[in-house]
């Protein structure tokens, strides 16, 4: 009953194995039924004896076959009829209620509340946010550094490394953010992780119990909210005003929160900067209540007027701020490297927790990034991208003014790679987003970034970092068509 496809790329021994296994699982070969010897089967199939021997060996190892004195090779008696009667589930079948997986209470909460958009491989379409200028990345230089490391350093980095990360990279990061972001830290306070999402997850696990209150910006980043909710914490939405998160609202309504998550240098998504007054108010609250502050410093190096604003961590004298940074937004998304800057008293705690969920971040990429930073390429890349994003921001602003300026309102962003446009109150930003998708655009509805979107003005999030000027102008014309 075995038919082999000799034109297939699949090895013949694998075909023999799968045909026999299928016959056993489907019940065509019964428990205890005798099989021909490997020599006899090889002769019948016109294959080498090695082919059938390898197939039998795999079936023996997996428990499908059994060898007995006097009977030769038989189908294993312990293969139950119940197992043989189970129909394989295909991806197209919908599970019945009986088949629905039983999850924990927290597991159900997580899968029902997640709002992070699925990653979309391939060339981004206007105006996907959170994507850097992939067309302007120095790929050849990165390739050279990668090849050099692979040739000269692999014997040194192929063993397990420190959980907290590659020491030279931690030193390079500490030096860079100390100069450019005003972060006060030593290399020992840097913990390398696989992106800002893991950093948020680790911090949330370390500080929050189920039922604890956590301040989040309203509107705010979905990744932060999901990381906090995954611990069973209760989110307390604090409105974002012109000066950033309104700390007074938090103190009045949720004074005993355990944690506040903020993007002070470039608020996501509105783009405002937290004023010095609000920063000191937030630090004072954290110090008085023994609360913690998660500062997500995701793209604030790209400031177009003056130098980048210093991080909130640089003002903290009470050691209550955990600063988070990522290279995915600065270099390229698939570089899953980010970092935490933690107070000295928390280094061992974060390290122990991190070790329980991951050994360490990919070490070859850490080594290459170290060279990229130490040789000055990183700082030059930041300067080039700041100029490029400035140009692309201006192109987007000009195109909006030309095509849809009378239909929307916006503020010109001074930092980052995205902007928000406010739609007329009569419009539905979710419906607009769906129509824009059909026109080959990738915009994001602002209402989805509010915990409570009721009564909020509709708007769209537009990323411009990954698109040249012509793509931006064409995209705005298509968006104008959708709005009309």
Topology (SSEs and partners):
Blueprint: H1 12-26, H2 38-45, H3 49-61, E1 65-68, E2 72-75, H4 81-84, H5 105-113, H6 139-152, H7 154-157, H8 167-180, E3 190-193, H9 196-207, E4 213-218, H10 222-229, E5 234-241, E6 244-245, H11 247-253, E7 259-262, H12 276-289, E8 292-296, E9 321-326, E10 338-341, H13 347-357, H14 363-374, H15 377-403, E11 409-410, E12 418-422, H16 429-438, E13 444-445, E14 459-463, H17 469-483
Parallel strand pairs: 4-5, 4-7, 7-8, 8-9
Antiparallel strand pairs: 1-2, 3-10, 5-6, 9-10, 11-12, 12-14, 13-14
Helix pairs in contact: 1-3, 2-3, 6-14, 8-14, 9-10, 15-17
Keyword list:
single chain, 484 residues, alpha/beta, Arc Repressor Mutant, subunit A, Aspartate Aminotransferase, domain 2, Aspartate Aminotransferase, domain 1, eight-stranded mixed β-sheet, 17 helices, 14 strands
What does this structure look like?
It is a single chain. By secondary structure, this protein is an alpha/beta fold. The chain has 17 helices and 14 strands. The protein has helices spanning 12-26, 38-45, 49-61, 81-84, 105-113, 139-152, 154-157, 167-180, 196-207, 222-229, 247-253, 276-289, 347-357, 363-374, 377-403, 429-438, 469-483; strands at residues 65-68, 72-75, 190-193, 213-218, 234-241, 244-245, 259-262, 292-296, 321-326, 338-341, 409-410, 418-422, 444-445, 459-463. It folds into 3 domains: 12-84, Winged helix-like DNA-binding domain superfamily/Winged helix DNA-binding domain (Arc Repressor Mutant, subunit A, Orthogonal Bundle), CATH 1.10.10.10; 137-377, Type I PLP-dependent aspartate aminotransferase-like (Major domain) (Aspartate Aminotransferase, domain 2); 380-483, Aspartate Aminotransferase, domain 1 (Alpha-Beta Complex). Strand 1 and strand 2 form a beta hairpin. Helix 8 (167-180) crosses helix 14. The mean pLDDT is 89. The longest helix is centred in the C-terminal third of the chain and has 27 residues, at 377-403. The strands form 3 sheets. The protein has an 8-stranded mixed β-sheet with strand order 3-10-9-8-7-4-5-6, with helices on both faces. It is 41% helix and 13% strand.
């Amino acid at each position: 009953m075995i038919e082999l496809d000799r034109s297939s790329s699949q090895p013949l021994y694998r075909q023999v194995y799968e045909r026999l296994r299928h016959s056993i699982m489907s019940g065509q070969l019964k428990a205890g039924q005798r099989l021909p010897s490997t020599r006899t089967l090889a002769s019948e199939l016109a294959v080498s004896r090695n082919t059938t021997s390898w197939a039998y060996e795999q079936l023996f190892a997996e428990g499908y076959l059994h060898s007995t004195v006097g009977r030769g090779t038989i189908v294993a008696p312990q293969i139950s009829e119940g197992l043989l009667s189970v129909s394989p589930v295909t991806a197209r079948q919908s599970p019945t209620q009986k088949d629905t997986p039983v999850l924990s209470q927290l597991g159900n909460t997580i899968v029902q509340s997640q709002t992070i958009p699925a990653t979309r491989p391939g060339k981004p379409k206007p105006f996907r946010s959170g994507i850097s200028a992939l067309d302007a990345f120095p790929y050849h230089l990165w390739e050279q550094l990668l090849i050099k490391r692979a040739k000269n350093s692999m014997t040194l980095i192929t063993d397990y490394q420190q959980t907290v990360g590659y020491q030279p990279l931690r030193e390079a990061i500490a030096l860079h953010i100390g100069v450019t972001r005003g972060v006060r830290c030593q290399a020992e306070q840097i913990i390398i992780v696989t992106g800002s999402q893991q950093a948020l997850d680790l911090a949330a696990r370390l500080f929050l119990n189920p039922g604890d209150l956590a301040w989040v910006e309203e509107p705010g980043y979905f990744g932060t909210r999901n990381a906090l909710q995954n611990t069973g914490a209760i989110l307390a939405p604090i409105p974002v005003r012109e000066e950033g998160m309104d700390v007074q609202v938090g103190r009045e309504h949720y004074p005993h929160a355990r944690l506040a998550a903020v993007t002070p240098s470039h608020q996501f998504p509105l783009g405002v900067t937290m004023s010095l007054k609000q920063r000191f108010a937030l630090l004072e609250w954290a110090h008085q209540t023994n609360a913690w502050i998660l500062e997500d410093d995701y793209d604030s190096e790209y400031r177009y007027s003056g130098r980048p604003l210093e991080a909130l961590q640089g003002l903290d004298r009470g050691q209550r701020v955990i600063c988070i940074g990522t290279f995915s937004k600065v270099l390229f998304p698939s570089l899953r490297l980010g970092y935490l800057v933690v107070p000295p008293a928390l280094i061992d705690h974060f390290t122990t927790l991190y070790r329980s969920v991951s050994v360490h971040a990919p070490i070859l990429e850490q080594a290459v990034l170290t060279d990229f930073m130490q040789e000055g390429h990183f700082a030059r890349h930041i300067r080039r991208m700041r100029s490029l994003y400035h140009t692309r921001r201006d192109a987007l602003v000009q195109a909006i003014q030309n095509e849809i300026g009378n239909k929307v309102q916006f503020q010109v962003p001074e930092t980052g790679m995205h902007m928000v446009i406010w739609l007329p109150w009569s419009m539905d930003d979710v419906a607009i987003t769906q129509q824009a998708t059909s026109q080959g655009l990738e915009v994001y509805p602002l209402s989805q970034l509010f915990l409570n979107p009721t009564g909020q003005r509709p708007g769209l999030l537009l990323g411009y970092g990954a698109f040249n000027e012509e793509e931006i102008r064409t995209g705005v014309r298509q968006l104008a068509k959708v709005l009309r």
